[in-house]
Amino acid sequence: MSRLARHTKGALAGYSTVVLAARLLALIAASVPVAMACSFYAPSTEDYARPRQLEGMGGANGQGGDSGVGASGNGGGSAGLAGEGTVSEAGAGGEAGEAGGTGGGAPCAPAPERCNGVDDDCDNIIDEGCPTGFLRASTTKETSLGDSTGGTTFADLCANDELIVGLQLGFSGWLYQLTGICQRYSLAVNTQLTPWKYSVAFEATRLLPSHPASTNGALQQVSCAAGMVLVGVHVYEQYGNAAHTGNPYITGLSISCAAPTFDPSATNPQLTWAGAVELGPFIDSSFNASEALRKDQLLSNGRLVVGLHGSAGFWVDNVGLTSSSVQVLIK
Known about the structure:
Blueprint: H1 3-31, H2 34-38, H3 45-49, E1 52-53, E2 86-87, E3 131-141, E4 152-157, E5 162-171, E6 175-190, E7 197-207, E8 218-223, E9 229-238, E10 249-258, E11 277-283, E12 293-298, E13 304-312, E14 316-330
């Protein structure tokens, strides 16, 4: 073989080897995983300075990342959200997570309801079964006292929230004028005690119309002690002559008073009273104990005086009490 031929053959063999090697390298490169290829990446100086957004733990060289998720509160708040931290290679920590919600308090433990301004039995109603006020029932005219005839009948009532607590009398030899004294009452509550203490409170007084409308007699007011109300009246009448003829006159009068009270725990609570105290008699100069005849009207327990009735002309012929019961309103 000539020198040229041998040279040509050797060159072709070398070319084939180079091509084959290149193809083999390409095949190997195609089969290498991407992750392996990434391992050959050399970060630049700029990469070290650039912060990266991470959740959870921070960089490898420090304690980074967010603080823990806030715990849920008792009885109600939702859990706090995890904060998203920014961390560099130095491992700076992220922002703290939001705190958990505030709890709603201990659950209600049912107990018997008491009058104390608290929902003891956990039914969303406060103080059911406790007093809230008073309500006057229908009225009754009791029997009038006095046997004098003539005159004009009258009937006066206090307001629904008032009771009779006394009388204004006008004497001039005998009873020439009569006027009722009303006093407003209401429910009083002492919240300093547990359970609360309830009672009857009294406020302003006022006069009913007078009968007759005018008189020349001296006026005097006969009233129950504070906190007490009228529950009875007693009249003394006598004749103007020894033969006891004609009309008798009222020459003296007394009243009975008592303190109203009530029991909130009763099935149908109402105002009651006990231990009436008599005041009087209130008399004029013509009163003669040996001649005077006493007549009484004392109410039964649970009845209270809310008005007066009777008849009067030039003087008071007779007088009667108008009574009513007073119911205690319950929530």
